[in-house]
Amino acid sequence: MPKARVWTAAADAVIRDMRAGGATWAEIGRTLGLSRNTVIERGRRLCAMAPVKVAMAVEADAVPDDPNRGPLRAGHPLSWGLLSDEPYPQHGGCR
């Protein structure tokens, strides 16, 4: 059975800092010499998240009320209320 990986504070700091800077999991893995999946798992345990992308508010007038318009993206604020009584989510599970 393989031995458990011992994570250092320095490696944790690299994961947090690079992810906060917008680096992909693959880039972080290459920097640390680890696989992408290993870094993803550790990053999730550390709640290392990428910078929040601010979605621009969409006015109801900005989406045409045309039956032939294209579909709205998944979780679009205009359609969110049709699916749930909850407010539109602002971020992921880690706080």
Structure description:
- With 95 residues, the protein is mainly α.
- It has a domain at 9-46.
- Helix content is 40%, strand content 0%.
- The chain contains 4 helices and no strands.
- It has helices at 9-20, 25-32, 36-46, 77-83.
- Helix 1 crosses helix 3 (36-46) and helix 2 packs across helix 3.
- The radius of gyration is 19 Å and the shape is elongated.
- The protein starts with 8 loop residues before the first helix and ends in a 12-residue tail after the last helix.
List keywords for this structure.
4 helices, 95 residues, mainly alpha
Give a quick summary of the entry.
With 95 residues, this protein is mostly helical. The chain has helices spanning 9-20, 25-32, 36-46, 77-83.
Coarse morphology = elongated
Uncertain parts: none
Radius of gyration: 19 Å
Query: Whole-Å distance between the termini?
Result: 34 Å
Mean pLDDT, all residues: 80
Percent helix, as a range, is 40-55%
How many DSSP E strands?
A: 0
Determine the structural class based on helices, strands and strand pairing. Answer: mainly alpha
Helix-strand pattern: HHHH
Instruction: Give the biggest beta sheet.
Output: none
β-strand amount: under 5%
User: How many DSSP H or I helices?
Assistant: 4
